[in-house]
Amino acid sequence: MSDVRVRYAPSPTGYLHVGGLRTALYNYLFARQHGGTFVLRIEDTDQTRKVEGAVENLLEVLEWLGLEFDEGPSRGGEYGPYVQSERLEMYREHVRILAGTGHAYPCFCSSAELDAMRLDQQARGRVPMYDRRCRRMDPAAAKARIDAGEPHVWRMAVPERRVLMISDVIRGDVRFDTDTVDDQVLLKSDGFPTYHLANVVDDHFMKISHVIRGEEWLPSTPKHVLLYEFFGWTAPVFAHLPLLLNADRSKMSKRSGDVAVEEYRKKGILPQALINFVALLGWHPQDDREVFTVPELIHEFSLERVNKAGAIFDMAKLEWMNGEHLRMLSDEAALDYLLQFTNGSVSRDVLRQVWPMMKTRIRLPKDLFGDNLYFFADPVEYDPAGVAKHFANPEIMQVLDAYRDELGRVEPFDAATLEAHLRALAERHTLSAGKLIHPTRLALTGKTVSPGLFEMMEMLGRDTVVRRLAKALRR
Predict the structure, then answer these.
(1) How far is CA 377 from the centre of its chain?
(2) Which residue among the candidates 50, 251, 254, 308 is catalytic per the annotation?
(3) Is the pTM here over 0.70, yes or no?
(4) How far apart are CA 230 and CA 103, in angstroms?
């Protein structure tokens, strides 16, 4: 732990996925806790999947989240460049080293040959793997074909009949039989490396001490450990994070729906709430506490408390947590946040009056500007069940009309006076106060549930209250 260096190494293939965010976050927390270095590296060796603008978007989202990296694109560092397409000659040189030691060999098989090979293996009930036919080729013949310009890739020569025991911080010792490990392509015919070669070479030369990544890379780890062995390098410490699961326990992926960090941002999720929520997707603190600030997460986090089992992404819990973090803001900071979602249609002064009434009820901006739009505009529709229940009695309608008329003269127009006046009116007509409170709320909001009626009436003001009551009574 004397010199912790970790990296987050995404491919620029689209938006930042919440699984990628968790990987970045755990690396960040681990580095900060140990006074180490957090490196951002862009793994763009698969040029066919590269999406224009993905790197810029990633940098912007990481900045919004406050996950500041110490070395990487746009920042630099001692071990750059930090974009793999700018490091191609290094990878080619290391393939030449492997070839010279007998740990890599050229493969001339076409796509059609490889497809036929896989189909034949599947038909015989075998796991599809490269059958190593080019590995048995005479070296002189292989060189002649290369010199003639024949397209080829370079594959890793995986040793046979060996058992690799890999120690993982989260999963303990994991055993692999090399006879089940494919002769992985290391360098493609276009001169670009595959992930397996590039990430090992980069992790070594960037002095990465701990590789913290998703569970999906665990089956590839024996290939990486062998490459460290072939080069005579010391492998880093490995920690493979559990899968993220949907509510139905299916794997959460970019194809499974609403998983982009940008989408949560658009919905009004606070960055600190998203970080808090994602931190708990697999990691469990020493107690049952759930709400953390980022400094508290840095202090509490440990890889040893990350679970092996998959973690379920619960959107309802994320929204609850957002409400908790929203209430942790100062009132003015909360107003700043909420005003971003009004398109200028709501003034700060009006929102300042609404906020105390809604503070304990809001989880997302939509809770205020969608579900409770009546604070800012007259209701267009009225709850049908509420209308049938509270506006069916002609006597109640008459009393409400009288109440509307009297509201024009109530002084002062504050919550206490308004409540006293309504209760006195109900008593004069031998009605329970609720017989007037419920239809008044429905008239003013279109809903049967709202914050305190009289505080809301004071906030809306006399003219709005009288107008809405008149409109509802006409309806």
Answers:
(1) 34
(2) 254
(3) yes
(4) 7
